[in-house]
Amino acid sequence: MKVGTIGTGFIVDTFLSALNEIVDAECVAIYSRKEETAKPLAEKYQVGTIYTDLEELFSDPTIDFIYVASPNSLHYEHTHRALENGKHVICEKPFTSTVHETESLMELARKNELMLFEGITTIHLPNYQLIKQYVGKLGQIKLVQCNYSQYSSKYDALLRGETPNVFNLEFSGGALADINIYNLHFVLNLFGVPQSVNYAANKHPNGIDTSGVLLMKYPNFIAECVGAKDTRSMNFVLIQGKNGYLHVENGANGCQNVILHLKDKEVRLNSQTTINSLYYELLAFKEIFDNKDFDRCSHLLDYTHSVMEVYEKARKSAGIVFLADNR
Fold first, then answer.
1. pLDDT of 221-235, one tens digit each?
2. CA–CA separation, 202 vs 175, rounded Å?
3. Out of 3.30.70.920, 1.20.1250.20, 3.10.129.10, 3.30.360.10, which CATH number does the structure's domain 123-279+308-326 have?
4. How many Å apart are CA 29 and CA 40, to the nearest integer?
5. Rounded CA gap, 154 and 159, in Å?
6. CB contact burial 287-306 (16+ within 10 A = b; e otherwise)
7. Is the pLDDT reported for residue 263 higher than 90?
8. Residue 270: which of 64, 130, 136 has the closest Cα?
9. Where are the alpha helices (DSSP H) in 135-180?
10. Three-state SS for 14?
11. CB–CB of 4/63 below 8 Å?
12. Which of 51, 169, 198, 287 is within CB 3.0–4.6 Å of 57 for a Cys-Cys bond?
């Protein structure tokens, strides 16, 4: 499994570190608009090729997969071009800016018999699988609370009058897209699509959400997802049921420690052996690729589509309009 990457940010560094731990997988090329920005990563991970032209990356015959970690608004374009050039794709979350873009990519991938994955850590984590295994012991669920808040240095830039990509409507940014999406995946992969969705956001004058609360109603319980890039918090997930509650320490994105509370009994659950959460999603993608398991790939794509539908409803309920909405 040979990979070429688009992007040079922190997430690409984390991705390459995880890829190094996967047997028979390697990065063979890095794309950046400027060669000097790609050099540190190329040297760190001994990647032999740097491209500053996307067409050269897409036409490289040694590459099986393109890993797309460009700004959110470019996910669709870069993924579409990669698929057109016969490459499988791992596209970072949030998958696209709109549901329409997601559907277009799904159609193209299936038409060209190519694998297409959303790079979302949560649903592939061993501890998340433990949560699925044990959540039934809680009895009837009544409340789900998720909080993933991380103060961003880019927020300071926003307050200074700058417009970083992550706080820019043109780049499909915002707290819901960047951070609360992990909470959304956590809930939807456990419980499916809710009956109703509403997102109440703290918005900057430019219209972007810097933090917010996503409320999802199910037939018998309510799920609340808090995501913030303008404040800090204790990050956690709590699932409350008739028989007890389940506590995920440090938030939905890593599921680092899981504690099951049943009456006066406490059970600690942890089967994760590495702190790099991207390792587990890459392990899953490599297995699907090796086995040519297009059914499993398709199932994951359908799930991504359902998340995008809820995500778009939530975003629009808060009056957040991306440039991509007009395309």
1. 999 999 999 999 999
2. 9
3. 3.30.360.10
4. 13
5. 9
6. ebbeeeeeeebeebbebbbe
7. no
8. 130
9. 153-159, 175
10. helix
11. yes
12. 51
